[in-house]
Amino acid sequence: MEQKKIKYIALVIALTSQLSNAQQKDNIYKKGWIDFNKNGTMDVYENPKAPLEKRVQNLISQMNVDEKTCQMATLYGYKRVLKDSLPTPNWKNEIWKDGIANIDEQLNGVGLLASNGRNAVVSKNLIYPFSNHALAINKTQRWFIEETRLGIPVDFTNEGIHGLNHTKATPLPAPIGIGSTWNKDLVLKAGQIAGREAKALGYTNVYAPILDLSRDPRWGRVLETYGEDPFLVGALGTQMVKGIQSQGVASTLKHYAIYSMPKGGRDGNARTDPHINPRELHEIHLYPFKKVIQDAQPMGVMSSYNDWNGEPVTASHYFLTQLLRWEYGFKGYVVSDSEAVEFIYTKHQIAPTYQDGVRQVVEAGLNVRTHFTPPKDYILPLRNLVNEGKLSIKLIDERVAEVLRVKFRLGLFDTPYVENPKAADAIVGADKNKDFVLDIQKQSLVLLKNEGNLLPLDKTKIKKVLVTGPLAAEENYMVSRYGPQELKNTTVLDGIKEYLGKDVAVDYAKGCDAVDANFPESELINFPLAAKEQSDIDQAVLLAKQNDIIIVALGEDEKTTGESKSRTGLGLPGRQQQLLEALYATGKPVVLVLINGQPLTINWAQKFVPSILEAWFPSHLGGKAIAETLFGDYNPGGKLTVTFPKSMGQIELNFPYKLGSHNTQGNEGPNGFGKTSVNGALYPFGFGLSYTTFGYSDLTITPTKLNSQAEINVSVNVTNTGKRAGDEVVQLYISDKIASVVTYDSVLRGFERVTLQPGETKTIHFTLHPSDLMLLDKNMKWTVEPGDFEIKIGASSEDIKLKEVITIVP
Fold first, then answer.
1. Helical H segments across 517-667, by residue range
2. How far apart are CA 583 and CA 568, in angstroms?
3. Residues 290-329: pLDDT tens digits?
4. Tens-digit pLDDT profile for residues 642-660
5. Domain Fibronectin type III-like spans what residues (predicted)?
6. Is the CATH number of domain 63-427 3.40.50.261?
7. Where in the chain are the domains?
8. Catalytic annotation, residues
9. Largest alpha-carbon pair distance within the chain?
10. Superfamily for 692-808?
11. From edge to edge, which strands make up the β-sheet containing 712-720?
12. Dist CA 170 CA 193 (whole Å)
């Protein structure tokens, strides 16, 4: 009896203790504020009405070194680094018992889930339904607020360049397709959707947009950029940031800086040594970052893992502090790209030890280290550096304060939880934004060729269609590591079948694989066709002869372009060219649909194939958008944001370009002449056709003579001179006629996408600011020099319709 009584008393004590702890945790939630440090008093940092800076400094003053260093590292989410889908008692033994800066990709559906066992089921349920994810994030956030000494909330980060990186969220086309819309309002809306879904799911920081420029088409990540031009990328990037942050979450820019120009376009294990001079660095590659930071005030920047001029960016005080904070005015926090810190020691080899590399990046201006290894790998060296007197605690305070400011600005110290988790089910998901997903997909399509007006096809005059090519029934290019997963994808074949229904018979033959067995060596050596390859082409040709029209989907898939997948050729991979030529030889009309992530040297197709539609990497409704465009329900109006070269030997060939750098060979003169190279672009920057035609008139510029700080108003009339409604992208370029340094032939300084009915005229207005005329002078100072400037309006960088000269007076 006595023993039972003792056990009973012990049980009562334990239950009472648990109840007391639960009550104590609940007691921290006061009316209008949260007692994060659980001392029963409203400290300054807990006071929602206190000034931001006072809250930050008050919190810093209460933090010890362990807590400060924990605010300088990322914890990658479940199944990447974090082994638990939800908090466990063992978290008290982990380094994040003292807090953490952010948790990345927590339960977003990307990465390897356990294939069996209870955890796999639990984690899947915490990803979808969406409300369960919001509840899971709240539970994780609650642990950090209630179980750590100071209760500092976590910033939950996630990727977002193809739409929010969460299972079944709203997808976007690849960024190169988004860029091809040239539609600022559409990109703003895309950002709003991504931000709204992030907020509803519990993410507080979205890693988007990418502001890198695609100046070298060999580079594998061309598909993840908006294009090659700094003004265009800056304008669209500004809209994306504004859209995301309008929903109360942070936008983090990628990848700062000069990330997209590794030597020779080599990605993978190279990713370094960009050959870029200082003037090009500032006028081209840093232009979008400066523009977006100053116009949209993003709260985050991701530092890249490449070097410039021998200095790794992530260890560069010049890049992370002088330029980013002092000159551009950035007021957020800098997170490293994965392994950027480690590369200081392992790849760039400018640090004698890894720990010294850690010292260098902190002194340079890095706030938070991110990598696919435990956060202690960075936090413990930080603490050693402080304890050894090699890293100033005052500098640590600065770096931590920059992180905390963002957390305060996001409202994490006032409303740290998703307030209505159930609402996520009604807010998030591709099915909630079907019209938008289809619209942005259509607007990204670019018509490259339409000889004899073969397009749009008239389904009433067609009895049988052959859909062929390795990309016709493929869908892997629709799913990105950086975007939503597990959506029902509509392939090109699916889209055409669904569109035509029972009215037109549709045949299908793959024709060939995306690559052959010898790829990529087959880009160097012409291997004979294998028997199976010849048989597949023959089957497609046999069917083609029995059909009225051939629609062939060629290009690249997810395995042939993308991150770490730079190419050594830009032709159609594998046996695709042989298939295309064999189909054309049947004499049947051929429509080529390009699925690709970078410019391709499709010279043969441009010369012989009647119609070519560029679709880039579409998202899950890509096949529907393509079908509706091919058959005339939609009139394509997208424009290229990258130059298509005719040959790899022309690279670099991009816009903007320095005066004379794209000139052809001379035909006469004292220095002789040559006929040894193919010149000019296959398709220039800004190019794109339509099923209708447009006329330009009445260019008006006021004033035409002005001082350097005045604004310039430009207007032009654009008329749909055809018989179909359509979109035109009106583009404004400027040429500096005489300057103190060699300038670009012309630069883009305005664009507007406009929809016009047949016969309709609209007046397009632009306002040019002094910054639009600036250049870096001989002393590398930004200035507007006096002299003549030519204002040009056109349908592409080479198709200029109207122009007029203005003069900046001394």
1. 531-544, 576-584, 603-608, 622-630
2. 27
3. 999 999 999 999 999 999 999 999 999 999 999 999 999 9
4. 999 999 999 999 999 999 8
5. 728-797
6. no
7. 63-427, 445-650, 692-808
8. 337
9. 117
10. Immunoglobulins (2.60.40.10)
11. 694-702, 712-720, 761-768
12. 8
